[in-house]
Request: fold
Amino acid sequence: MTDQIIWTAITPVENIPPREGRAVNAGSQEIAIFNIGGRYLTIENKCPHKGGPLCDGIVSGTSVVCPLHARRFDLETGMAVRATEPACVATYPTKVEGGVIYVDLAGARKAYEDAAA
Reply:
C-alpha cells in the first residue's frame, strides 16, 4: 500500500458555478465538487442517511444541505453538522492547476477514520 497522491483531471473550473455543486462520475465513484468562492471542495455524492444526491443541496458557507432530508454536511471535514447521530461522507483532496480541477480519488478520508487513527 502506498500513500502516493495520484491526481485525476476532472473538469474545467467553469463547469462548477459559485456556491453550487456538480456530480461527477470518476471511475467507480460518484463525487460532488463544490465551488466555494473559487475554492473547490470534493465529497462523496451520497448522503449516508437516505442516499440523497449532495451535489443538488443548498450550499451555505462551507456546508451543504441534503436535498432529501435536510441533513447538513461540512464540505471540509465531511462530518454531519448538528446531527443527533454521527454520520459523515468521505472528502477528497482537490486542487486546481491551469483552470482544471484535479482530485485524488484514492485519497478519500472520513473524519471518523481520522479520529480512530
User: Anything to note?
Assistant: The chain has one domain: 8-116. Residues 111-116 form the longest helix (6 residues). The radius of gyration is 14 Å.
